[in-house]
Amino acid sequence: MTNTIQGLKPKLLKVKLSDFLEHLKLPDEALNFILKAKEVAEKQGRFLYLAGGEVRDFLLKRPSYDVDLVIEGSATDFLEELKRKFIFEVLFSSLFLTYKILLPQTGFEVDLVTARGEVYEDVAALPKVYQATFKEDVLRRDFTINALIYGLSPPYPEMIVDLVSGISDLERSLLRPLHLRSFVDDPTRVFRGIRYKVRFELNYAEEFYQALSQAIEAQAFLKLSASRLRSELLLFVKREGISSLPRLLSECQSFDLFSHSGLGVDGEKLVEGIETLKEFVEILSPRELEDAFLLILAGFKRENLKRLFFADSIIDRLVKLYEEFRTNLQSVLTLPLIGRVLKFDKIDKATLIALSLYLPELRKEIKRYLFVYSKVYPELKGGDLKELGIEPGKQIGEILKKLREEKLEGRLKTKDEEIAFVKSLLYSAS
Ligand code: ATP
Fold first, then answer.
1. Cα(363) to centroid of ligand 1, in Å?
2. Which terminus has fewer CB within 10 Å in the chain: N or C?
3. Distance from Cα 52 to the centre of ligand 1, integer Å
4. How far is the CA of 276 from the centre of ligand 1 (A)?
5. Per-residue pLDDT tens over the stretch 136-183
6. Residue 58 pLDDT class (50, 70, 90 cuts)
7. By alpha-carbon position, which residue is closest to atom 21 of ligand 1?
């Protein structure tokens, strides 16, 4: 293997540094950091380059906001020298020879990694990594279009270096893994590939299908850890956004990836689930949207929830809640409004949205709750009630509940009406 790697002849494309840096939409602090890093690499006689998405996006003329710097040889020595010339903080480093760097003025984060090779000892297990040449670093990557690098220092200063026909694959819109065992080693690459396919409207190269068959054969998706499966699926929402979800999920379905991954997912429900997410997206924080997406995938099934790395205590709570609602649907629907609202108050938005999908009888009520009722509260607070002469204690809670009920039913509109209502309660009690 090493001999063939040594023998690889790179295709080189000259690109002026200023042109390359211009396409990275970076704050000046980050640009200056790159320039200083280049200076240090030149002084130490080491190859420094940008890798991955930035080079691909440059060729596609698409903006890129990440900085993934790679240095051949030890990153520790390199960072020590760089520290003398530039102010930054190393936020953390990992076993994978990677460093997360914080630039203090702008808060911008840069990834710096040591050029590395990887050995996969088990199907779908995390690899053992070792310091390596840039060629090995290129060949450990997921797809040819992501294996392009841009040299900042000799031997390839100001050049895009292509060892794997990534440029021609980009031109032909082809998504090609670097070798046929690629997805056996790391099945998350298939989910990554689906994201690139949808994002850049690519076609799968023949090798993609072959590598996928090998991964399915080796049960690589089943062997993928729950936490990695969860993080990878979350990137559908985090990186690609909800508008791409229908295509992403239908790609997964076309390869039966969910069942290969040990997830029992009903295709029709999934399509409905995306529509449901869209309906609620405006009232969800990014975190709530992610949670709702996972719950929709899982569908309150214990095994699915486990596969998506939910903690046991949360799984118990979710399954119990679903069963409670399912078996008591009629009584929930016939509760007085305040009773239903108080019940829903105890449940987070993501769970309510998933319930509205899997118990469609509740959909209208949950929608009304999330868009309207959950925001209806009396203007009077506990402190105001004390000022009206109510002793601190249980009574305050009871009156607040009554006030909320009156507001929900539309019988109280203004603060003055609330005060009058409280006084009438006190009067009738005395
Ligand atoms: P994006 O635009 O989605 O950020 P990216 O290509 O920059 O795309 P990252 O997840 O930031 O994606 O990864 C950076 C680079 O690291 C990739 O371009 C690829 O070369 C490599 N890489 C990331 N994950 C893997 C993986 N699982 N297997 C092999 N190489 C990977």
1. 39
2. C
3. 6
4. 30
5. 999 999 999 999 999 999 999 999 999 999 999 999 999 999 999 999
6. very high
7. 141
Rounded CA gap, 68 and 65, in Å? 10
Name the β-bridge partners of 143. Answer: 177
Nearest CA to ligand 1 atom 6: 53
In the reported structure, the alpha carbon of residue 305 is separated from the centroid of ligand 1 by a whole-number distance in angstroms of 27
CA–CA distance, 161 with 176 (Å, rounded to integer): 17
176: nearest Cα among 205, 141, 201, 140 = 205
Burial class (CB in 10 A: 0-12, 13-18, 19+), 90: middle
State residue 330 phi and psi, 5-degree precision: -60, -40
Per residue in 176-235, pLDDT tens? 999 999 999 999 999 999 999 999 999 999 999 999 999 999 999 999 999 999 999 999
Ligand 1, pocket residues at CB < 6 Å: 52-53, 66, 68, 141-142, 146-147, 186, 188-189, 239
Q: Token pair 């992610």 is at which residue?
A: 290
Read off the pLDDT of residues 406-428 as tens digits, 9 standing for 90 and up. Answer: 999 999 999 999 999 999 988 88
Q: Which atom of ligand 1 is nearest to the CA of 57?
A: 2
> 């603060």: which residue's tokens?
415
Report how far residue 64's alpha carbon sits from residue 142's, in angstroms, rounded to the nearest whole number: 18
Q: Please tell me the distance between residue 83's alpha carbon and the centre of ligand 1 in angstroms.
A: 27
Residues in CB range of 372: below 8 A, 6 or more apart: none
Which helix or strand (DSSP H or E) is residue 224 part of? Answer: none
Please choose, from the candidates 229, 189, 183, the residue with its C-alpha nearest in 3D space to the C-alpha of residue 210: 183
Burial class of residue 180 (count of CB atoms within 10 Å of its CB; 0-12, 13-18, 19+): middle
Q: Which amino acid is at 380?
A: L
Residues 242 and 277 sit within 8 Å (Cβ to Cβ): yes
Beta-carbon contacts of 200 under 8 Å, excluding residues fewer than 6 positions away, are 60, 173
Nearest CA to ligand 1 atom 18: 52
